[in-house]
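Shape matters. As here.
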Amino acid sequence: MLKLEIRSEIKEAIILLVFVGLMIDTLTSVTIGMIFMGSIMVWFKKRPGPRLRNIITLGLFAAYWLTYGKVIDPEVGMNFLTSIVMLKLLEKETERDRYMIFFGIILLISAGSLFQRSISYVLFFGLSFFILIQDFYRSLKLHARVMDVLQALIWVLPFTAFLFFFVPRMINPFQLEKGGPKEGEVGYTPDVNISQIESLSGNDTPVFQASVEAPIPYNNLYWRGNTLTFSDGWNWPMMPQDRIQLSFTPMVDKDRPMPGIRQKIRVFAQQEFFFGHDRPSQYIIPKGVAELNSVRTLSQNRWQPSFRYQVVSQDSAITYPHVSNHDLHTGLKAEEKKWINQNFHSTNLPALQKEIQAFFLGKQFSYSLSPGRVESLLDFMENKKIGFCSHYSSAVAQILRTKKVPARLVSGFLGGNYNKFAGFYLVTQNDAHVWVEAYH
């Protein structure tokens, strides 16, 4: 009887190829290319020599450095581990190599379960483990007791099924805190509380990366986080009306991405809001799409946050929401309103913009991350005359509202470092910014 024997390295290469297919959103194009090329070499028994393997290894390190830079997180480790396992498979010559490949693949597909929580990945994991354990026993000249393995599987299957279907999963096991800045550091915060801040220090912690089809001009590099409509006269706390939540509906043909600037966002830590370039109109996650007008924002689900999503932003005319009392409320004292009316006389937005700009330039205001404590609007406008973006934005918004021009603050980011090699912007806490959104 003809007995078909498949080389163990071919089985291992097939497992890696299926793994790549399941992890397509996590692995880089460099890693995917490495697995495909390595599998072809394994199939045709064309293993590279030590010198070529060293060159490939150095090339991988260079590619990962160009792609990730100083970012260190589980995704970077997953790409490194996948490439290392394939390099070891191409090197396999001794029994020691066999042990390293076996345990390396087990570690790899186990780590993959932190990124993939689908039933298909569970089935892939079980089948791969069964194939690997059989080959491992065969290499040791031992009889693989398949019935014992199956019996143990049957015993644990009910408990495993209960855990998988009914017990909540830890969304991000590596991130126990939300990804906000520490006290006294530059960084994105959903609210703007400036009366207690004396100084800020730099903070280059990565917040998210945004893959785009083409570079965006720097003066358009605004990344919207959330809007703020209520002020106590100087600070802008987060209010319930600012936390907009929408349900994601399954995508059908009519819901396909709108024309506009498309981005693939990957956040490095749990955030309270979805991020998107300037004026997002669509947010797309695996379970569906949420549509909103281009000046609204969308809050994340606290218990099921999205770390990867797509955004479509509009670069056409803006349709502003209906003006409400929230957009005109100032929270200012009578003397503060009187001071504004004495120093600013225009009532239409274009003329008022010029007046405000001339005032700041004429009074020699300056920018600093260490302005000292600025406790109120008049303290900033008459005494300190120094501050950072939050001080200027709050002051301008209060002036506009006092002159009956609807305005609010937007907390987000400005700028980001563009990676030409990988085609994405890396946005850090140092890029955090607050600006005014006025409409009429």
About this structure: Residues 8-166 form one domain. Residues 170-177 have pLDDT under 50 and may be disordered.
